[in-house]
C-alpha cells in the first residue's frame, strides 16, 4: 500500500510535467529572453519566495552565481529571502509583508528582473515585491500555480507568468524547479552555444 502511494506521486508528477511541456514552453522561453536582456545589459535578477518557494529562489540564485551544468562566468542574481538580519529587521521595524519589497526598493534598478515565486499567487510579501519592481521599471517573471492568483492580475504585458495548472502545492513546486532548470539551461545555451552537458 505504501509503495503504491509513493509510486502515485511519481506518476502524478510525471503526468503533470508532460502536460506542462506544451503549456509552459512559451512562457519559459519568454522568461529566458527577459533574463538574457537583463543580464547582457549588466543587470541582475532578484528572486523571492516563502517556504519551499524560498528554497527555489535560493536554488535559482546558486545556479546563476555559481554555475548550472557548464563552466561560465557567474551571472548576477540575489535571493532576497536569505539574509536573516535584513528579514528580521524589516519584519520587526515594519511588517513581514515588506521583507521583499524593501529590498527591491534598495537593490533593484530599471532593467533588472524580479523572479517572484508563489504557488498560490497570493503571498502578500511577494505581491508587494512585484509592486516595488514595477515602480523600479523592472520586469517580473512570476512562477505561480492554480490560476495565478492575485499576482496574475498585477502583471504587465512585458511581464511573464509561468503558471502551473494544478491545485496541489507539491506538484506545482516540482514543476517550478524544472522550469528553473529549463531557464538556466536556455540562458547558458544562448550565452555559450549548444553543447550537451557532461
**Total count of strands:** 5
Rg calc: 17 Å
The best one-word shape is globular
SS-based structural class?
A: alpha/beta
Question: Which strand order do you get reading across the main beta sheet?
Answer: 2-1-3-4-5
- Mean pLDDT across residues: 97
Strand content: 5-15%
- Largest beta-sheet characterization: 5 strands, parallel
Note the total helix count.
7
Order of helices and strands: HEHEHHEHEHEH
Low-confidence stretches: none
Report the span from N to C terminus: 38 Å
The level of helicity is 55-70%
Per-chain topology:
Elements (H helix, E strand, L loop, with lengths): L1 H39 L4 E4 L3 H14 L11 E3 L4 H10 L7 H7 L5 E5 L6 H12 L3 E7 L3 H6 L5 E5 L4 H24 L6
Helix pairs in contact: 1-7, 2-7, 4-5
Summarize the structure.
The protein is 57% helix and 12% strand. With 198 residues, the chain is of the alpha/beta class.
List the keywords.
198 residues, alpha/beta, 5-stranded parallel sheet, 12% strand
How would you describe the overall organization of this protein?
By secondary structure, the chain is α/β, with parallel strands linked by helices. The protein is 57% helix and 12% strand. It is built from seven helices and five strands, in the order αβαβααβαβαβα. Strands 2-1-3-4-5 form a five-stranded parallel β-sheet, sandwiched between helices. The protein is globular, with a radius of gyration of 17 Å. The termini are far apart.
